[in-house]
Automatic annotation (TrEMBL), chains A, C:
<feature type="transmembrane region" description="Helical">
    <location>
        <begin position="177"/>
        <end position="203"/>
    </location>
</feature>
<feature type="transmembrane region" description="Helical">
    <location>
        <begin position="31"/>
        <end position="52"/>
    </location>
</feature>
<feature type="transmembrane region" description="Helical">
    <location>
        <begin position="271"/>
        <end position="293"/>
    </location>
</feature>
<dbReference type="GO" id="GO:0005886">
    <property type="term" value="C:plasma membrane"/>
</dbReference>
<feature type="domain" description="ABC3 transporter permease C-terminal">
    <location>
        <begin position="180"/>
        <end position="288"/>
    </location>
</feature>
<dbReference type="Pfam" id="PF02687">
    <property type="entry name" value="FtsX"/>
</dbReference>
<protein>
    <submittedName>
        <fullName>FtsX-like permease family protein</fullName>
    </submittedName>
</protein>
<keyword id="KW-1133">Transmembrane helix</keyword>
<dbReference type="GO" id="GO:0051301">
    <property type="term" value="P:cell division"/>
</dbReference>
Automatic annotation (TrEMBL), chains B, D:
<dbReference type="GO" id="GO:0016887">
    <property type="term" value="F:ATP hydrolysis activity"/>
</dbReference>
<dbReference type="InterPro" id="IPR015854">
    <property type="entry name" value="ABC_transpr_LolD-like"/>
</dbReference>
<dbReference type="InterPro" id="IPR003593">
    <property type="entry name" value="AAA+_ATPase"/>
</dbReference>
<protein>
    <submittedName>
        <fullName>ATP-binding cassette domain-containing protein</fullName>
    </submittedName>
</protein>
<dbReference type="InterPro" id="IPR017871">
    <property type="entry name" value="ABC_transporter-like_CS"/>
</dbReference>
<feature type="domain" description="ABC transporter">
    <location>
        <begin position="2"/>
        <end position="222"/>
    </location>
</feature>
<keyword id="KW-0067">ATP-binding</keyword>
<dbReference type="Pfam" id="PF00005">
    <property type="entry name" value="ABC_tran"/>
</dbReference>
<dbReference type="InterPro" id="IPR027417">
    <property type="entry name" value="P-loop_NTPase"/>
</dbReference>
Length: 301, 224, 301, 224
C-alpha cells in the first residue's frame, strides 16, 4: 500500500514525457472523465443528504435531549420557597446551563389544548414547572434526583426520556438513511470508475502491445497509463463535485419543496467535505488502472 | 546473436515448426522464405521473444528466452529492430513520433537530430513526417516500419516482408539501407517472397537463404 | 416517436440473423450491461426511498390529520348531559368514524408530564375531552363548530391544525427528498446508459466501416447494433433491478439501523414499480444507440 | 461500368490526382501501377464510392456518385468486389463467416454451399476456415480478402495489391482466378507493384496497364 502511494506522488509530479504514448482523447478518455464526474456528482448529493439528515436528527434529538422539567408540588404557601430551593440546587448542579420557572402564561399555554384557554390556574392546586436547559455535558439525572429528594421533597425531575424516544428513533433512521446512501454511492462510484478505467485500458490493448514490442518496460507502460487515467478521474470527479455543489445552490423550485432543497444544502465547514471526493476518485482510479495495466501486460510478452 | 536449437512450435492446432536449429551470427545476412503460412512470421516472433518455444532452446544474446524476466525481454528488444508484417503504429502519434518511439520508451534521444531527417528522406517519407499512420499509404507505412526498426541502430534487424507493398525501385532502396547496416556489422534477417529482391541482394552481400518447408528450416542452395 | 417504437417491437422479436455481425463480448458489451445494472440498482433504491418516505409522510400526516378533539367545559352537574349531546351530534356528523370520551385515566395520563401522577382530577373543574377519529373524507370543521355552538355551547372543537403543521411540513420535505432522488437517478441513468452505448458503438467503428464497405445498408447496420445494445441494456437493468430488490430484503445490520432498513423496503404492490426500470433502460438504450449508430454512419460513405 | 471524367482529388494537403479520365468497360482487365504513394488506393476508393471526387464526375453503373443516396452506394457496392489493401475483417467472426459476409448483409446465400468450399480450397484456405482473422498469416488474410471480394460474383472486381504478401506460385493461382472471372465477363482492375505478375497476366488475357504519375493516369505502353 505504501509503495504504490509514494508512486502516486511521483506520478502526479513528473514523467509527463511518457504521457504522449497514451491516446489523449477519444471515447475511452471521455468515458473515464464522465463516469468520475457522474459519480462525484451523486456523491456530493449523498454527502449533502447525509449531513442534512444528520443535522435534522441532531436538531430533533437536541430539542428534547437538552432540556428537562422539574415539577414542584407543594401547598400554595410553600410553593415560592420550594421554587427558590430548586433554583438554588440547580445553580450548583454541574451540567445546567439555565433554569427558569415557567410563568403562569406559559403554563396555561401548555395546558390549553386539553383544558381550553380559560383554566383558572391560580385557583388550582397544580404543580409549578421549572424548565432546565442543559449544557453540552448534560446533567447527572440520578444525582440531581437524590439532591432534590433531600432538599426539596416536593420536586420531581422529569428528563423527558419517555417523550424523547420516538423522536430520537426517527432521527436515527434519518441519519442511517444518509449513511446508507453515502456508502452505496461510494461503493458504486469505486466500481464504476474501476470499470471505466479497465474498459478504457482494454481499448488500448493495441497501444500496450506496440509499446511492449518496441522494448518498453512494464513499469514504463503502466506508469504512463496510470498517470493519465488517475488525472482523468481526478479531473472528472472535480468537475462533478463542482457541478454537484452548484446544484445545491440552485434557486429552489416553487412550492413547498423549495424549503427542502434549502435544507439539503451544506453549511459552513461542511462545504469542505466534498473536496475529499476528487482525491478519492483519483485514488480508486490509480489502483484500478494499475491493476488493469499490469494484468493486461501479463498476457503479452 | 540469435541461436535456435531443436526448436518446436505450434499454435495448438498442430506442429508448425519442429526441430529448427538455426544461428544468426553477428554481421550475417539472411533471407527467410517459404510459402505463405509456412511459419516465417512465427519464426521471427520466436527470435524476438514474443513467442516462447514449446520445445528446444532459443538464445538471444546468449540468454535463454524461457528464463528471461519480463524486463530482460524488453531490454533485449531494444537491441533488435523489428519490421512487423502488419505494421504496428500508435495511430494518435505522427509518423515522426512513431519512428522515434523506440528511443522514447528507452529514455534516449538521437545524438544528432538530423539523423531522423536523413533516415526519413532515405525511405522517402520526409514530406509525410507530420501525418498520422492512418493517413499513410500501404507502402508508406511499410517504409515507416523499417525506419522505426533501424532508428536506434540495433544489433539485429528482423524485417518481415518489408517490401510487400512498395515498388521495385523503393525495394532496392530499402534493401540498400539494410545492406549498408549489415556492412556496419549489424545482423540482418529478411522474410520475403520476392525472389528478385534476394537475387539483387546476393550480388551485393554474402546472403544466406533459409527456406521453411515441412516444418523445418533449411539452407536453400544456389538454385532459388 | 411512433415509428421508432414500432421498430422497437420488430427489433426485439426478429432479425437475429443480423446479430452475428456485432461483436458479442468484449468490454463494450460488459460496459453497457454494467452501466445499466448499476443505474437500475440505484434506481431501485431511489424508488424505495421515495415510496418509503412517502409512506412515512403519510403516516405522520394522517396520525393527526385524521383525529380531532372536542373539549367540553361545563359545571360538574351538566357535564354528563353535554357529553351525551356532543356524542349525539357526532353520531350524525358525516366524516366521523368514531367518537369516544376519554376516560379519567386517559386524561390523567395526558396531563401527567406537567402535573405528575397525583392530579386530583375528580376534584378539579377541568374540561372533559372527546376524541374524534375521522374517516377518509374527514369532517367539515366549520360546520361542526357551528352545530356544537348551537346545541352544546360548552364544547369546543380542536382539529389540531396548529399541532399538525410542523409534522406535515417535515413529511412534505421527506417526500420531496424521495422525488428529487428519483429524478436525479433517472436522469443520470439515462445519461450513463446513453454514454455507455455511444462509447461502445465508437469502439465498433471499425466493424461499421467494414460492413458499410461490403455493401450493408445503413438500416441493416443500425438495426443490428440497436437490437444488441437494447437487449444488453435491458438485461443489465434487469439484473441490477433484481439485485437492488434483493438488497432491500437483506437481513438488517445489527443496531438501530436495522429498523430503518426494514422501513426502506417496498410493500405489497409497490414491488411492481421496479419492474418498470428495465423497460425504461431499454427504451433509453434504443434511442441512444440508434442516434449514435446513425451519426457514426453519417461520417462514412 | 466505371467511368471517371476529369476527376481531381486531394486530401487537403495538395492535389493527388487531377484531370483523371478513365473508363473500365465491361469485361475489361486493367492493371494499375505507380510508385508507392502515387494514389492507387485513392483511385480505387473513388471507384467504389468511398471517396467523392472534388472535381469532375465519377459514374458507377451509369450513376453519378455525387448524386447517389447512401443506399444507392450500398447497392452499387454489392456489384463491386473490393480487395482492400489493409484487409478489413470482423475479428470476432471466423474466416468462413467473413468471406460470406457480403452475402449475409445483402440477405442472400449461396445457391450451392459447396461453392464456398471450392473457393476456399482454390485460395488455399480450406484448413483455416474456422480461424479468426487475427490468427491468420499475412498472406492468408490477403487470400481471404480476395475470396470475400469474389464470393458474390460481382460485376466488377477491384483488387488493391492482392499479392503483396503471398509467394509467386500463390500469386499466379490468384491471378488465374481473376483471369477466369474476367473470361466470364467480369471487369477486373488490379493495383500492383509486381511487374512479373503483369507480364504473366498479359500472356493470358488482353490486359491494359494504367500508370499513375504526375497526378495523372496514363496507359502504359508495351514497355513496362
Ligand atoms: N495466433 C495464431 N493462432 C493460431 N494460428 C496461427 C496464429 N498465427 C499464425 N497462425 C497459423 O500459423 C501458420 C503460420 O503463420 P505465419 O504467420 O507464421 O506464416 P507466414 O509464413 O508468415 O505466412 P505469410 O507469408 O502469409 O505471412 C498459419 O497457417 C497461420 O494460420
Ligand atoms: N486519409 C488520408 N489523409 C491524408 N493523406 C492521405 C490519406 N490517405 C492517403 N493519403 C496520402 O495520399 C497519398 C496517396 O495515398 P494512396 O494510399 O492512394 O497511395 P498508393 O498509391 O496506394 O500507395 P501504395 O502503393 O504505397 O499503397 C499518400 O502520400 C498518402 O500519404
Ligand atoms: Mg508472415
Ligand atoms: Mg495503396
Amino acid at each position: 500500500m505504501i509503495k504504490p502511494l509514494s508512486k502516486l506522488a511521483r506520478l502526479i509530479l513528473g514523467d509527463a514525457q511518457a504521457d504522449r504514448v497514451v491516446p489523449p482523447t477519444g471515447f475511452t478518455a471521455r468515458l473515464t472523465v464522465f463516469a468520475s464526474a457522474t459519480m462525484a456528482f451523486l456523491a456530493v448529493f449523498a454527502l449533502a443528504l447525509s449531513l442534512a439528515t444528520g443535522r435534522l436528527a441532531d436538531r430533533w434529538g437536541e430539542a428534547l435531549a437538552k432540556s428537562a422539567t422539574i415539577r414542584i408540588s407543594a401547598p400554595v404557601d410553600q410553593m415560592d420557597a420550594q421554587i427558590l430551593a430548586v433554583t438554588e440546587i440547580l445553580a450548583t448542579t454541574p451540567g445546567v446551563k439555565e433554569a427558569r420557572p415557567l410563568s403562569e402564561d406559559e403554563q396555561r399555554a401548555l395546558l390549553e389544548p386539553w383544558f381550553g384557554p380559560d383554566l383558572p390556574l391560580d385557583r388550582l392546586p397544580i404543580p409549578r414547572l421549572v424548565e432546565v436547559i442543559e449544557d453540552d455535558e448534560g446533567i447527572d439525572a440520578d444525582g440531581l434526583r437524590a439532591r432534590l429528594a433531600g432538599e426539596a421533597p416536593g420536586a420531581i425531575l422529569d428528563d423527558h426520556a419517555r417523550w424523547r424516544e420516538p423522536l430520537v428513533k426517527s432521527a436515527t433512521r434519518l441519519r442511517s438513511l444518509g449513511w446508507i446512501a453515502i456508502a452505496l454511492i461510494t461503493t458504486l462510484a469505486g466500481v464504476v470508475i474501476t470499470l471505466a478505467a479497465s474498459a478504457a485500458l482494454a481499448a488500448n490493448e493495441q497501444v500496450i502491445r506496440v509499446l511492449r514490442l518496441i522494448g518498453a518496460r512494464d513499469s514504463y507502460i503502466a506508469r504512463a497509463f496510470v498517470r493519465r487515467y488517475t488525472l482523468r478521474a481526478f479531473g472528472g470527479a472535480a468537475v462533478g463535485t463542482v457541478l454537484g455543489m452548484l446544484a445545491l445552490f440552485l434557486p429552489p423550485a416553487a412550492g413547498p419543496e423549495g424549503g427542502f432543497l434549502t435544507g439539503l444544502g451544506l453549511q459552513g465547514l461542511e462545504w469542505l467535505w466534498p473536496l475529499l471526493i476528487p482525491p478519492f476518485a483519483a485514488l480508486v482510479a490509480f489502483f484500478a488502472t494499475r491493476h488493469a495495466a499490469l494484468s493486461t501486460l501479463q498476457e503479452k510478452r | 546473436m540469435i541461436e535456435l536449437e531443436q526448436v518446436a512450435y505450434g499454435y495448438g492446432t498442430g506442429t508448425l515448426l519442429s526441430g529448427v536449429t538455426m544461428s544468426l551470427a553477428q554481421g550475417s545476412f539472411h533471407f527467410l522464405t517459404g510459402p505463405s503460412g509456412a511459419g516465417k512470421t512465427t519464426l521471427m516472433k520466436l527470435c524476438y521473444g514474443e513467442l516462447v518455444a514449446e520445445q528446444g532452446k532459443v538464445e538471444l544474446f546468449d540468454k535463454n528466452v524461457s528464463e528471461m524476466q519480463r524486463d530482460d525481454v524488453a531490454n533485449v528488444r531494444r537491441r533488435i529492430g523489428v519490421v512487423h508484417q502488419d505494421c504496428q503504429f500508435l495511430n494518435h502519434l505522427s509518423l515522426a513520433e512513431n519512428v522515434m518511439l523506440p528511443l522514447t520508451v528507452s529514455g534516449r534521444s538521437l545524438h544528432d537530430p538530423s539523423e531522423l531527417q536523413e533516415l526519413l528522406t532515405w525511405v522517402g517519407l520526409d514530406r509525410q513526417q507530420a501525418a498520422k499512420p492512418p493517413e499513410l499509404s500501404g507502402g508508406e507505412r511499410q517504409r515507416a516500419a523499417l525506419a522505426r526498426a533501424v532508428i536506434m541502430s540495433p544489433d539485429v534487424i528482423l524485417a518481415d516482408e518489408p517490401t510487400g507493398n512498395v515498388d521495385w525501385e523503393m525495394s532496392l532502396r530499402l534493401l540498400q539501407l539494410l545492406v549498408e547496416l549489415n556492412r556496419m556489422g549489424k545482423t540482418v534477417m529478411i522474410a520475403t517472397h520476392d525472389m528478385n529482391l534476394i537475387r539483387s541482394a546476393k550480388s551485393q552481400v554474402q546472403a544466406r537463404v533459409l527456406r521453411i518447408s515441412n516444418h523445418q528450416v533449411a539452407v536453400a542452395g544456389a538454385n532459388l
